[in-house]
Write a structure and sequence with these properties.
The chain is of the alpha+beta class and 269 residues long. It has a single domain, classed as q2cbj1_9rhob like domain (Jelly Rolls), CATH 2.60.120.620. Helix 1 crosses helix 4. The longest helix is centred in the N-terminal third of the chain and has 22 residues.
Length: 269
């Protein structure tokens, strides 16, 4: 399996630190994505049926956990030398994998509210990144099928008043009153639509303000979402109080680096 190499990781790190997101073009071979997509569809459809008419992310929008198993956990992706170098540059060499899920808007989905995926640790004080999200489009992300919209450099906003403002009863969570709701933007902000083609991946700081947009196409926009973090941020309760779920044969197949990154997952006996 051939995977694109030759990325200027130093340049990408600088871009990431300034914008809060970056794209690695043409990282994953199409045949690998074909295998992932084929295995993904029945898992996705079962969970959609279970959620019924109340999707967990709003109208026609679903968040679904991804199993830690082949072909989803592909060492050719998370062990890719350029990605490893990038993650180490952001999080340090001892980073770990946390959760693995998805973000799927189907036709008829609407604007999400502006939000962050993690809170600022210390409102009023900017800190280095504590989490990095790796997003893997399984189809081309376009204007029509609801690509993600982000506000560059907003991961640096740590203002205590903004972060703690109570909006719709949720403190520091929703920001539509600042940026504008739906298509009705407020102020002089300059969001970017991340129209990322299949085969590329995009990486973001979860503190960046972002939102999903309406899917007006005739198909879903399937995307996998793997989160890496500094090891002290990993939830020890999940590690100590959940059933073991990581297949032993998959664990045995990992590289030394893969086991280092997955070391806090619960491996089955």
């Amino acid at each position: 399996m051939s995977i694109a190499t030759g990325y200027n990781v130093g340049q990408l790190l600088e871009e990431y630190k300034i914008n809060g997101f970056v794209i690695f073009e043409d990282l994953i071979p199409q045949e690998a994505l074909d295998r992932i997509y084929e295995a993904w569809i029945p898992i996705r459809d079962r969970e959609i049926a279970r959620q019924g008419d109340k999707p967990n992310r709003g109208p026609n929008r679903y968040c679904i956990d991804i199993p830690f198993e082949h072909p989803f956990l592909d060492s050719n992706i998370f062990d890719h030398p350029s990605l490893v170098k990038f993650f180490e540059g952001v999080l340090g060499a001892d980073y770990v994998c946390g959760n693995f899920n998805s973000n799927i808007p189907f036709p008829g989905s609407v604007y999400q509210k502006w939000h962050r995926d993690v809170a600022i640790l210390f409102p009023g004080l900017m800190t280095p990144a504590i989490k990095v999200a790796l997003r893997i489009p399984l189809v081309d992300a376009t204007e029509e099928n609801g690509s993600i919209e982000v506000i560059p450099s907003s991961h640096y906003i740590a203002d205590e008043e903004i972060c703690n403002k109570e909006i719709e009863g949720r403190r520091g969570k929703w920001y539509d009153n600042i940026f504008g709701e739906g298509p009705n933007r407020k102020g002089s902000y300059y969001p970017v639509r991340l129209n990322v083609k299949r085969g590329s991946v995009w990486i973001c700081d979860p503190r960046v303000f972002h939102r999903g947009t309406p899917n007006v196409s005739d198909h879903s926009r399937d995307e996998l979402y793997m989160v890496f973090s500094r090891p002290w941020l990993f939830n020890p309760w999940l590690h100590e109080n959940t059933e073991k779920y990581f297949p032993r044969d998959l664990w045995n197949s990992l590289s030394d680096h893969g086991r280092q990154v997955m070391r806090l997952q619960r491996v089955m006996d």
